[in-house]
Amino acid sequence: MELKDVKALIEEGRSLEVVNTLKERLNETSEPKKRAELQGAIGWTLVQAKEYEEANKYLESSLVGATDGGYTYVKLRANNNLGILHYLQNDFEVSRSYFNQEIASNSKTAKIYLRLLDIKEREYLGKEALLSGVGKRQSKQFQEAINEYEVSLEHQPNNPKTLEFKGYAEFRLGNLEEAYHTLEQAKHADPKRKFTHLNLLKVSCALKSSPKVLQVINGSELEQEVFIDWAERDLELQRVCDGNEAFTDFIQAK
Description:
With about 250 residues, the protein is an all-alpha fold. About 80% of the residues lie in helices and about 0% in strands. Helix 3 runs antiparallel to helix 4 (about 50-70). The N and C termini lie far apart (about 75 Å).
């Protein structure tokens, strides 16, 4: 099996066959450059198979062998593949450390992954903070939830889901003006997100503002039957909108 055939066999779902064959060849050769190449090929095949721990071992061995032997191309390939391996595992700083190596300074692969790392790290950290905030909210720790949402928004400033969740938490704390502003941001980020409109309606009722209530209902892209359904089913909406003239008139008219 030639090294150029590895990719084709992986695409056929024969990764373990490739690894075993390459390991046999590795055991049969003592030539340093060939060993470094084979170790790199085994490592990359294991990356493709998501066997990351074993992949790291072979790629590190390839990098060491290529460095000791002065095999520039083999070294660059092992270095970049280690960067990709850690990128796939969300080890952002370790991944960057490989792509920032001097040997990778002119590598197109390294430049692409350095840009991708910035994007993926923001998405990952934003998602992690959002999930943490959801956990706090479920425990009714609304201020702690807001703190987590704000961390999430530092990484993904216009995430409509995070903005909506933050606005609802502010509503539950009684910070109504802040809640309304946050939910308006969420609406502009994604006008089709249903629960943003529901929470805006709750906040508008809590603010005792009939104009805002009408603005939420009439300014929404949602069918008005959606608001009717919420009025019949959502106990929190019923409670905060009880006595609001605009909301009552809307329901009775339907």
